[in-house]
Amino acid sequence: MPGGQLAKIVLAWTAIVLVLLGGWVFVENDYILRLMMLAAVDMIVVIPFGLLMGYMGYLAMGQASFFGLGAYVVGNLTVLRFELDYWPALLVAVLITAAVAYVLSFPLFRLRGYHFAIGTLGVGQLAYLVFNSWSWFSGGTFGTSGVPPPAIGKFEIATNSRFYLLASVFLLIAAFSSWWLVRGHVGLALRAIRQDEDLAAARGLNVLRYKRLIFVYAATFAGLGGALYAPMQISFDPSSFTVWSSFEYVIYVVIGGAGTLLGPAIGVIFVTVLQQVIQGFGGWNQIVFGLLVVLVVLFFHGGLWGGFRLFCEAVASRVAARGKTSHLPAENQVVGR
Q: Under DSSP, is residue 156 helix (H, G, I), strand (E, B) or coil?
């Protein structure tokens, strides 16, 4: 890797770490910290999901089911049926979510396009019914409460500030692992699948292997997000893991910019801020939210991140053109009368 490119990569990741630490150091309002904490958890889910939807081109509508599975496994192992510590429960939740996703990948990837989306939608609805009906597993409509906070020795992660810091650590892991996958041969394989799956297979690419890999990868981080979400809440119930919740993840990717790493995170930030701004509209808030989402999709074809990049490129090209004009000899410059 050239030294200049390595320096840019180090600088970019350093900037991301400083931004996350800045939120922890400078934000003192407990409500804002909670919003940041929940937004960080959503980013943990949506950045890997962006690889499945944006890079590979497979629309999945069941991410909330894996998110809920991670939360309920932690709830079972720590409160409902057992009394494990939080960290072993988190590890088991992530492994179980990955195993379930791997098993589901066999029937789901017999489907393509809209059929795949409908198949994952069915998985999401089935998971919601299971969460709602299996009281022994989820507490049913009464939900699960009292999940103990994580602790490192005697240091309990029990405040919004500490939860935000914990979520930021796992967010960096999710972001870095996604970047590492995209910049290598996996990223090339995903783009080939998105452009023409049959052609990629004909040229020797093991398409099914990469599709299962990314599906399980995205589901695993969704389970991790759910496992982090469980102790952050006083209680949680199946209403937090509906099909609409899965649709929200799709909105994050589309608004932020599909096929980019930063796009989904920007989508989470945009929607989180927007929902706070439109709260004053009362019963009209959902209409205003939907209208603004439609406007973003219509006028920013690459999402907010794509629009920002196009704007920066346009400004750079304009500045470069003016610089070239200013360096022309005087006789070649057009002088107005």
A: strand
